[in-house]
Amino acid sequence: MTAPKPSPTTPNSRKSSQRHIGFFEFFFGLVKFLLTVGPTFVRYKDKLFYDASPKKDSIGRYLEKNAELYSDRPALIFEEKTWSFKEYNEEVNRLANFLISLGIKKGDIFVVFMENRPEMLFCLGAAAKIGASASMINFRLRGKALHHCITIAPCKAVIVGEEVVDIFEGIKADLSLADETPLLLMTDIRQNPIPEGYYDLKKIMATVSMENPPTTADITTHDSFAYVFTSGTTGMPKAAYQYHRSWIRAGHFVGKGMLKITSRDRFYVCLPFFHTNLTKLAWSIAHVCGAAIVMTRKFSASRFWDDVRKYQATAFNYVGELCTYLVNQPESDNDTNHSITRMVGNGLRPDIFSSFKNRFNVNKVIELYGASESDVTFINAFGLEGTIGFNIASKFVLAQYDIDNDELVRDDNGFLIKAKKGEPGILLGEAKKSIEITGYTSKEATEKKMIYDAFEKGDRWFNTGDMLRNIGFGHHEFVDRMGDTFRWKGENVSTMEIEKVANSFPQVEQSTAYGIKFGDGDGRIGMLALLPKVTLESFDFEQFGRLLVSSLPAYAVPRFLRITAEFELTPTLKIKKNPLRDEGYDLEKINDALFVILPDDKKYQPLTPQLYQEINGGKYRF
Q1: Please, what's the largest Cα pairwise distance for the chain?
Q2: Which residues of 548-572 are buried (b: 16+ CB within 10 A; e: fewer)?
Q3: For 486-496, what is each residue's pLDDT tens digit?
Q4: 498 in any annotated domain
Q5: Which of 90, 194, 380, 492 could form a disulfide with 389 if both were Cys (CB 3.0 to 4.6 A apart)?
Q6: Is 558:514 a contact under the CB 8 Å cutoff?
């Protein structure tokens, strides 16, 4: 059945008014782009775009080349310790050679579960040299989600950081690991003795050869080196392959081409290395170009610029929320007293693009769009405000989308309809061959994202689930993320994961989770609407709150709760989330009972008018 034509405007847009690129804006941006990047395109043309042939190029080759070219220059700086490129390569080799001695080979998987620290890069480098995949687990996960990610595919070893070993111990008995699967503890500050059943990995590495392993010669650009996890419609995180080709492309095109990173630069990294923003962007940019990575354990808005000054960093990578937190800090005479000249990342809000650049005097901002499971990429190469830029070397289409019924629009012949210029549409990436998409480790999960016979018989497209708008001259604006995920605190949150936990509570009949606009932040804070089985007076809000807090990562806990008598449904019996998103937690718009979990609390309490005003006034930091 043909769906109705979608409205030209969409809820939850990142910008209330549509952005349009004019000719002169495009022309001057193009001139600037060609003057700065043109020579790089010529020089690195063979490295920028790869065909489908298995070229003998890999991450491991870059690490080994860097150990010779930049032998004594800093490769990795963490707290008070520095590793040169030679020393970094040697640490990677020690781990790789040990893992090889355990029988780990090309195509195998080993789990990495630790907080942000240099050893994560040792693990990624070792996987890249062996041809294995390091399964990079989010260290914030708990319970079922953690269990799911660790067991998503059979692993040959588990590397656990000392700082999270107690969390791992809580689920270890349920993992059903093979008896021969070694548990390798990566010590940190050695506060506690090595638990029974674990090997001291650092102690072992100190005895292993630091020579380059022979396996590097067998790796190609089309091999994977890591799994990263993204939330999706299954309700649990899905693992997406990360390939050597993407790492190399990012390093050359963005690092050398766009940012002009050299071995004299220091690249500041305060985000966790289980994200693609780090694994195939920050790491590749720095180490393709021979620059040092300055790593911190976690992001701190109040400490950010002090760290930059301390380590004399010249560039950094971001997610949008990071920039929002920095802008929201009190202005200081020191705001321009730093060495940062370039930044790269995704999700920078259009309304703070210029204010961020001007306040902190950052010369170049490179905004990107990409997804963990897809090779479709956009880059704001011209540095224009309010755009994710143009598409890089992949065929894509924006398809019309019916927001009210949560489905793609089809014509009378059953084919999808392309969105017009200025009209929002769902981004689809062409996937004639498997090599043209990254995909998930689960073939079933990848297949669910595929659309066959979309615009003509025999075609095949990958549905990103993201809504973009063509704003002119090949440039695009990110509109919103549709479907069953939203972003909060820089994390993808699965609404189905929240709903599964909520629906397991005996007093809940049905629930639906969604993200709502909150304050000046870039992401969406979680909200849950539910239909109870009992009266409002009988509902146990304390136990319900404790269930959500104990079962979900902190960023996924829905902070606002709405108790309703009925849900508005689509013709296919799906709950309509858009009206709920639009109303948010606005007391003036909603007659239903509303509740909130305040920061550092575990119980839902009534959202009173006074509490409503205090929240909107910024009294509480969610």
Answers
A1: 71
A2: bbebbbebbbbbbbbbbeebeeeee
A3: 778 878 787 87
A4: yes
A5: 380
A6: no
- CA angle 163/165/169 to nearest 5° reads 155
- Amino acid of residue 387: T
Q: Is residue 53 part of a domain?
A: no
User: pLDDT > 70: what percent of the chain?
Assistant: 86
Average pLDDT, the chain: 85
Token pair 């490769």: residue: 75
Mean pLDDT of 224-241: 75
Assign residue 239 the CATH number of its domain. Answer: 3.40.50.12780
Domain boundary among 298, 330, 350: 298
Task: Label residue 55 by pLDDT band (50, 70, 90).
Answer: low
| Whether residue 171 has pLDDT greater than 50 | yes
Q: First and final CA of the chain: distance in angstroms?
A: 43
Q: How far is 425 from 465, CA to CA, in rounded Å?
A: 10
Q: What's the structural domain count of the chain?
A: 2
Both tokens of residue 232? Answer: 């999706």
Q: Which structural domain range is residue 596 located in?
A: 485-616
Write down the pTM of the prediction: 0.78
Share of the chain above pLDDT 90, in %: 49
Tell me whether residue 507 is in a domain: yes
Rounded Cα gap, residues 15 and 1, in angstroms: 32
Q: Would residue 260 count as lying in a domain?
A: yes
